Amino acid sequence: MSTMNIADQTSQTDLEAIKQVVAAVEHSQNNELPDEFVALFRADAIWTTGHGKRLFGRDAISTFTHQVLPGGMQDTTVTFEVEHVLFIRPDVAAVKVRQVYRNPDGTEEVGTPLFVMAKEGGQWRLTACQNTSVLSSDTPPATSRAPNRQAVHQDPVRHVRRGLFTRLMNLSTASWRGSRS
């Protein structure tokens, strides 16, 4: 992990506290604890999922998380590794994370979230977050951008397991198809 400070004003304590927030994200996902996850955000936080779903405010993030997280990690684990921290100010940091979902079939799905965090009342909180899926080098971009709608329809449960913040679009597609039958 690399770091940059503003005039050495940022302490090792802040770096460790930021890593603890990222560890709490990992813990809450692996253990399917939506309330623990949502508590990490500021009330006015924004989140953009890996498929571009924009969530404004903790209430919207909570609604989304309560839809996709319970049952969504069955037989799947995720790890989060802090790769880089840029302190924009002593109380604001951009945190680049490597996210790896491990599926029961042994495959991995990699993401690269960016968490902008703010320190308020002595605590670091998720403030503005963007999740981004990493396309494998052997997958043509045109086919990997959109979910396979046929696969979503045939096995929506498999798609629910694909990753917390990339799931909503798949679930929406499955629900939409189901409502049209």
What does this structure look like?
- With 181 residues, the protein is of the alpha+beta class.
- Helices cover 35% and strands 31% of the residues.
- The protein is built from 7 helices and 8 strands; from the N terminus they run βααββαβββββαααα.
- Strands 1, 2, 3, 4, 5, 6, 7 and 8 form an 8-stranded mixed β-sheet that branches.
- A hairpin with a 2-residue loop joins strand 7 and strand 8 (123-130).
- The protein is globular and about 45 Å long.
Question: What's a quick, concise take on this entry?
Answer:
This protein is an alpha+beta fold. Helix content is 35%, strand content 31%.
Helix/sheet category: alpha+beta
Given the structure, what is the number of helices?
7
Using only C-alpha atoms, the radius of gyration works out to 17 Å
Q: How much of the sequence is in beta strands?
A: 25-35%
String of helices and strands: EHHEEHEEEEEHHHH
Helix and strand topology:
Blueprint: E1 2-4, H1 12-30, H2 34-38, E2 41-48, E3 54-56, H3 58-68, E4 77-89, E5 92-102, E6 108-111, E7 114-120, E8 123-130, H4 141-144, H5 149-154, H6 156-160, H7 167-180
Parallel strand pairs: 1-4, 2-8
Antiparallel strand pairs: 2-3, 4-5, 5-6, 5-7, 7-8
